[in-house]
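Crash report, auto-generated. Payload:
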Amino acid sequence: MKTFGLSMLILGLLLPRTTAAAPPLSDETEGCLECHETLHPGIVADWRRSRHARTTPAQAMTASALARRVSAETVPNNLQSTAVGCAECHTLRPAEHADTFEHNDVRVHVVVSPRDCAVCHPEEAEQFSGNLMALAHRNLTANPVYGLLKAAITRSSHPLTDADACLYCHGTRLVLEGRQTRETEYGELEFPVIAGWPNQGTGRVNLDGSRGACSACHTRHRFSIAMARKPYTCKECHVGPDVPAFKVYTTSKHGNLFSANQHEWRFDEVPWTAGKDFGAPTCAVCHISLVVNTGGDVLAARSHDVKSRLPYRIFGLPYAHPHPRDPDTTLIRNASGLPLPTDWDGRPADGYLLDAAQRAEARRNMQGPCLACHDRSWVDGHWKRFEHVLGETDDAVRAATEKVRAAWADGRASGPEKGANPFDEWIERLWSDGWLFYANSIRFASAMAGGGDYGVFAQGRYHMSRNRAALGQAEAAARTP
Amino acid sequence: MKTFGLSMLILGLLLPRTTAAAPPLSDETEGCLECHETLHPGIVADWRRSRHARTTPAQAMTASALARRVSAETVPNNLQSTAVGCAECHTLRPAEHADTFEHNDVRVHVVVSPRDCAVCHPEEAEQFSGNLMALAHRNLTANPVYGLLKAAITRSSHPLTDADACLYCHGTRLVLEGRQTRETEYGELEFPVIAGWPNQGTGRVNLDGSRGACSACHTRHRFSIAMARKPYTCKECHVGPDVPAFKVYTTSKHGNLFSANQHEWRFDEVPWTAGKDFGAPTCAVCHISLVVNTGGDVLAARSHDVKSRLPYRIFGLPYAHPHPRDPDTTLIRNASGLPLPTDWDGRPADGYLLDAAQRAEARRNMQGPCLACHDRSWVDGHWKRFEHVLGETDDAVRAATEKVRAAWADGRASGPEKGANPFDEWIERLWSDGWLFYANSIRFASAMAGGGDYGVFAQGRYHMSRNRAALGQAEAAARTP
Amino acid sequence: MKTFGLSMLILGLLLPRTTAAAPPLSDETEGCLECHETLHPGIVADWRRSRHARTTPAQAMTASALARRVSAETVPNNLQSTAVGCAECHTLRPAEHADTFEHNDVRVHVVVSPRDCAVCHPEEAEQFSGNLMALAHRNLTANPVYGLLKAAITRSSHPLTDADACLYCHGTRLVLEGRQTRETEYGELEFPVIAGWPNQGTGRVNLDGSRGACSACHTRHRFSIAMARKPYTCKECHVGPDVPAFKVYTTSKHGNLFSANQHEWRFDEVPWTAGKDFGAPTCAVCHISLVVNTGGDVLAARSHDVKSRLPYRIFGLPYAHPHPRDPDTTLIRNASGLPLPTDWDGRPADGYLLDAAQRAEARRNMQGPCLACHDRSWVDGHWKRFEHVLGETDDAVRAATEKVRAAWADGRASGPEKGANPFDEWIERLWSDGWLFYANSIRFASAMAGGGDYGVFAQGRYHMSRNRAALGQAEAAARTP
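Recovered output after restart:
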């Protein structure tokens, strides 16, 4: 008996947790798997390893407040007691999805949207909708100034180019174009034809009118919290040189700790306990996750609206500025009437941005996890440097902007006053390099204590001052009679 | 008894697989190990962990067709029943290796070549010889146009520079220069002196006249399939900015899945099962490996001739083009009679490149593994974008090439018509930046769905359009009286 | 009984080693933990996983010579028999630390210095003090030439900028500014206010007058040898493009082996056995660690003075040169009387640099670990290429330097003879790009056999020759009447 008990203990330790009795599948999901288990073994295997396949919503809702992964108060009866399988997501609200089609007697839609996920995860969906990222498609494509920047960069307005370039991250607008009959292993079948597909950008405009793609970070079909908490996910869009967050992170002390020790960390725990589950922040610790200390006190509340911890937006356009209040940044008007968060001289478009009290609150929220490893003097010392750097980089951007405005004024370049694209001539490109790459790199390096090479030599201060010399050289060349 | 059986089971689970009874070693290999186990502990330890040390060819040949790692129908009798040790490879075909020398009464050669490996792995060696990579030395050094590019880049023709630079990846030509006597721990010994050594480039010209180095990817002395299947191996030569495959991969959704989940994957299985053994493609999945689905159906046949899955060569010289048919690209002649796959205006050197039917077959082969996780509409949507991007990047390269040809025509630069190097003057360098770095980066980002930063900001479209402005600026400066 | 013994064996294998009976804590440390375990769970958890928490100095001193991690002959009695906890480090030598303050009746200092660590690790502290890195603050800030370079790069002399930029790696000078009373969870408490804090740069000037920060590499509060041996630690300061060591490493064969196989390696063993504990060098293997072969012979002695294995300094200022003898490089005078290791034409400041015999010894020391996997001909072949590349890159730097000196001579730029900053004008920036980024990248790629993309296309030879064309273009433009 003793031996048997020990054996079970040992086997329990050896076997992966996935072997806990799996919940029943719905008949519809069983039907899907009959063909797709062989047709699409990769995604079915991912799903089988997911929490969706190993728990029912009813079980998930029994967790204590801090440990809950499902934020719904109630879940529809028919979904409560089976695993969350293919059919549970791909057949929800069929009338609302333009791509719903008959598929072996089931009304299926291809593109699952945040509104589908919200059946079990309404808080996360709601928070995310308050996020700049949820509006990433609109904020780029419906802002005429950014449209000029996009045109100057891609020199194409072809939808296939857009989908391959900016909208890869910003999200495409999905449009149902029609139906198509295809020959398959199971005979002729009809499928929807969707323009803008495939796409997993964070601001995707979906076929039910909703915005976003949870699978941008919670990669299909495992939809894993662990994977979203690792910095590789954020790297998909934030690698640089415009937003060099990942590069800076892996060069920082925090990133070093992650790289060296991640094999010992537990990325799947809810709540996520500093010290016990992880030894240094990943992107998610600072920006999104529910983090507690070993006493169970909340150091940071979970929020998929990242501005709850972001006093500033350090991705300069062209200056750093208090974070926008509304996720729809096309509503902003600066003093010149342009839809930009600052004026050409750096003055913030005040009414549209977080005020001092809101910034103070966001700063406090952000600092919660810092204080799990650092005392107040360390944290304050860090923030003092960071906020100083915001001013200094803005000064450098201002000096460069003045040079470009002078060129617009005296006709060496055609500026916005003449209806010209302010981002496409040589001097304008030099100017863009400065604020889009170098000032941003310096700020990210400072914000994330990535210091060293990224703040100085890798697209940082070295390049910012070199850029100043290049602009000066271009000016001098223009003046030569 | 029950306890004992259980203990064995547990120990079996706990102990590394390498403890399975090791096969006998040949007397010759025992002799090598007597000294080299202490002299070179690193490589001996690697070999002891290798399959070569843990299996005999006879055992390896009993595997079923899909599981076989040895492609030979028969292996010489004397090699069948011992481990594949030092002597088994380093004493093969002594008369054919120019570096064979007497070493403690054994005739040993230093450089093991693909022809040696072909004793057990003839299919892989044969496929590899059909690969551009096998000819990488010749394709660079025997092409006069690429020779000019190499000269413009390295500004040196010293063999030590070549070996340190281009030929690190392309492979050196090994030449026996003589013999040398060295004082060693075991007294005076004579060794061959080999120019071009060390080198593990894929196109190395060996001392038996063969081409290639299996150890480029199957790193000595473990010669591991697992390591070759991880993207770090390909990164040795394909990191950028000319061929930014690794950078794009790790930023893509596929690379994110690899980075986050690789600790759960099995890189050593043959055949390699999508979903079961791995959850997203690495380089090898798409380009080389035998991949099956969970039903055992072949999704992609193994081939070390990568063009079997490559309709295009997207590394532009200067344009993207259908993949060359023959691995020896020095045979190509474009319409102007130059050994280039396209003409200056982008017209492909048709007779030398894959035709439409061959491209369609290569595309089909490449898409096999895609369909393990994606439906047809996803895959087609991806390829449509990719092929659109090929046209668009070629258009951008064409516009830049026209500017340079105009400079050659009107004497602002000295072009090939004047016998000058077309790659060394300032305007020519700007032009090279465009096709060698930026157009290539855009294409790799598109091909591998790496989108985001690599297709736009990190040497992508931002830099391509900036390059256009720089070329325009250079033109304007030249025109100033 | 048999079953029980087996169970213990198995549990021993399954449980992490940290559960070995923990040594007693001092009363003072128990006192610290009472509050800080909850206040700072991250660093307390790190410390609990550390060897400091799991061993006493007395136990550590029983290890055999090669296995010892503590180099002190004797340790003060009061420290011998408890774990090395909070109080053991933060209360040492209170009178010598300017930041010592009363904290709940204990005299605590915030900043632990190498002189504190030297109580148990005197050899390492002594060696480190002979290292350029220990003087990194002074070598940058007290050298007037480098001061001009810093000014040209950062365009700021603000201490917050310095701390965020260059001194992040070089180390800040810590200065006690006063005392501050803060409201805490435990009521009002007084703390020291320290300018330059936080900082973990290798050349930090501490509040006890000592130099350095052991935590730069042995990250607090685990102070792990394993983490310091992984390349991510070195990456914090050596990533590029000025010192692209990490980028080159991960692209080299050695880095590929590390990336693919590190999960099988043992990073915590002392001594560190080639083949058994690791399969390829990390930074530490070549530059610092005690490395032995499987027979226990020493292949490289441990030294925290990295010049013991470095014949050259390949980080050119602006030329590569024999490694400086004295860690204080402000003492160097070149033939022109400047504090630079070479003259403008490349002539080394001989009396201040390693001589031929010292270089030969350093080379021999460095080659010890090479020979664990490579025979003499491989190693010699590698070094021959590397030393050839030093000459070739110096030639390229010399050609560029002559162009800049000509510009200084004829007034196209204002050089040092006129008291001007030699690093801030456009032609000077082009020149800096060449020696600071491109020549360095080529040398690092060669030194670490990273070849391929980093030596050629990623800030290597391609950019070095392009830089030459850019300088030529700038010259031609200046000559245009």
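Post-recovery validation: The radius of gyration of chain A is 25 Å.
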